[in-house]
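Sample entry (204 residues):
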Amino acid sequence: MTLQRYIITEILKPGAAILLVLVIILASYSAITYLSQAVAGSLPLETVGLLILLRIGMSLEVLLPTTFYLSVILALGRLYKDSEMTALSACGVGIVGVLKPVFALSLPVAVLAGCASLYIRPESYEKIYRVMDQAQAEFDLSRLEADHFLEIGNGKYVFFAEELGHSRQGAQRVFIRVAEGDKRQVILAQRMIQGEADAKGRKR
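Predicted structure, serialized as tokens:
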């Protein structure tokens, strides 16, 4: 029992570090992607953190088995490197005795990865698309930048304004392109003002 706890501890220590590094890499990549969209105006900045967390949850089904595989290799490699495997063999502990705690630890990892695949990943996917669709559907004048195109609704709407004032002044010399199927509609206006939000939080 003491040997099993020792081997499991040797696996968990590098496993925690590996999982942390993988999560940081994934979060950094997701942050770059979503922040670029937020800077472009197609995504509200306040949703970036939520989308990063959802992306991490969606990737747990891959991160957990990968982390476990690498941590087992590192742990057993260190045991061989420090001649601990030789000492265990001299004490009558064979390879089966070493692999028993590995298999025992693999069961909860497999259960967690299965739960992540069956429940966390679909929920994360659904919430990501829901947040993205809501961000694309709800236009906010404050997301416009002067002399920059803003594309929302998967390219259905394209906004452009030469000048931007305060919230009450709105945008000046506005270009709007609306695409519906093969049809294209272009709207030009000297001024555009966005109204107050309605009871459901949608701006008019």
